[in-house]
Amino acid sequence: MTRKVGILGGTGPEGSGLAYRWARSGEEIVIGSRDAQRAVKTAAELRARIGSSARIDGTDNATAVSQCDVVVLTLPFPGCAPLVKQMKSVWKPGTVVIDTTVPLAATVGGAATRMLGVWQGSAAEQTRELVPAGVSVAAAFQNLGAELLLKDAPVDCDILVCSDDDRAKQIATELAGQIPGARPLNGGKLENARIVESLTALLVGINIRYKVHSAGIRFTGLPI
To answer: 27 lies in a domain?
Structure first.
């Protein structure tokens, strides 16, 4: 299947990490950013790291949305809703949006470990409310640390994929399966994203307490 994957917020650690992993696996990637030149620079750095065969480019967010079949949201939660609204006239029918964002806030002088209340229930459900009809939403990758993605070693993490749309869930599952060491799992309906997102706050705390950057989630007893 030929597709373009746009990553909004793709110059940040999570976005560039996913871009790196997926471009290595052969996906065609478009990094989106408010600053198109910054996106172009990040894409060039990743191409240099992967090799000349990597299909990865950079542009502004709106152009990335207009060009791509799959759009991945990797920007901080406070900027997500304004950006999705800004793209209102750009979304194409049939686009699959994968929301990786988590509504976290930091205490004064501390790490971002406090969950914010979201009226819709979760960041992903908020995104679904904001995108136009014909655009489907899946939630995934919230529990996979950016630091792991930017390295070359396999990750050690299950990826829960939540969606009410079978096609969106399948595409997010395929992309998760292209990251070595990751195991995509069917997380059920999109409303379950509120549970998955809250696990990120738990993982951040575990990383701090154990002085690591690689805590992940594994489910045992499954036949896969």
So the answer is: yes
Chain segment 52-62, per-residue pLDDT in tens: 889 999 999 99
pLDDT interval class at 108 (50, 70, 90): very low
Counting the structural domains of the chain, the total is: 1
Distances in Å between the Cα of 179 and the Cα atoms of 21, 141, 151, 154 are 6, 11, 11, 7
Nearest to 138 by CA among 71, 61, 216, 218: 71
Contact residues for 132 (Cβ-Cβ < 8 A; gap 6+) = 88, 91, 93
Place of tokens 């896969």: 224
Residue numbers of the domain that contains 47 = 4-210
Helix 193-210 to helix 123-130 angle (10° resolution) is 140
Q: Which amino acid is at 53?
A: S
CATH of the domain at 85: 3.40.50.720
Is residue 218 in some structural domain?
Answer: no
Q: In this structure, how many other beta carbons lie within 10 angstroms of the beta carbon of residue 29?
A: 28
Measured CA to CA, the distance from residue 156 to residue 184 in angstroms comes to 12
**Quick one: residue 192, left, alpha or beta (phi over 0 = left, psi -120 to 50 = alpha)?**
alpha
The amino acid that residue 149 corresponds to is: L
